[in-house]
Amino acid sequence: MITGGAGVLGSTLAKLFIKMGHKVTVLDYCRIEEAWRLFDVMASIDYKWKSEMDIVKADISGLDVIFDCAIGFADRPFGIESPQNTMSANILPSLSLLEKVRKLDKMPLVVYPSSFNSLYGLGHKNIVTENSLPLSTSIYGWTKAAVELLYLTYSKAYGVPIVITRTSSTFGPGGRSDELPHRLILYIINKKETFTVRSPLATRLWTFSEDAASFYEAFVSRFEIEPLVFPGRILHLGGNNLDKITTNIEFAKLISKVSNSDIRLLEGEYEPGEIVDGKPIFLSFSAAETRRLLNWKPKWPLESAISKTVDWFSSNQYRYKVGQF
User: Fold this and answer.
1) Omega within 30 of 0 (cis) for the link into 181
2) CATH number corresponding to 51-175+207-241+282-300
3) What does the domain layout of the chain look like in residue ranges?
4) Angular region, 243: left φ>0, alpha ψ -120 to 50, beta rest
5) Whole-angstrom Cα distance, residue 25 to residue 310?
6) pLDDT of residue 73
7) Which of the residues in the chain have pLDDT under 50?
8) CB within 8 A of 205, min separation 6: which ones?
9) At what angle do helices 248-258 and 302-316 cross, to 10 degrees?
């Protein structure tokens, strides 16, 4: 089962697991006719139109794995203005799911895809490993950290088999239009003259969606062979073929270059939590333990991944509200 299965990650996983030969249930409160990322596989999945809060025992009995991909609110637009909304929307659904799972006679593995960048507002030159504790600078980041702790608590207190996958910033075909690369690509396609890059000198580790899919393919394949290897672990999903970390403005310039665009890039304001001690956030990333365990590493160069993403958006921009970016 994939909660939030109509979203970017959820739909990617649904298609991957169908291809691997698994029976897939998708749970989302997005209407079927609005779940366009699943249109090409809708006949192959069991789509349940409900939220995590509505799950009953019959929905989750007999499952091998649940991927908890549903999210509530990020810092935009509600996080700073309405922290109570953010806290309840991001924490309560996972708590409800875990409560129902722990009461099953046979509990499935429950995987929580957490967020890498939002968890670490560490300032400069800190190497973040799978064993690093969260230290966020945003309400959204702390809600992700809270859910991680919920997962670990249910693992220790009730024996729920859990895995946390901390994911870096992901981009690719079908990505959300509010994220930097997709928003900029849509601007370029629609011949906009200028683009404002938020938090220009804050850094990100960008990962192509096909690398993210290959990570989960390696994960599920290993789980099928050795299911007891994973419970209780935190894994790091992130990187590109060179594990290059870029500032937002550097990444925007690379997208412009690959797109052969002369769009003017402006440096905008910093988002909440993107400045620490007066400096843009910077982090160093390690996934050595994860890559050893899965025998996996990202393969896509940023330039090739950007090119493939641009091609997809050029053919599918009608799926987004053109002119509303």
Assistant:
1) no
2) 3.40.50.720
3) 51-175+207-241+282-300
4) left
5) 30
6) 60
7) 77-79, 124, 324-325
8) 116, 117, 168, 169, 238, 239, 240, 243, 245, 283, 285
9) 70
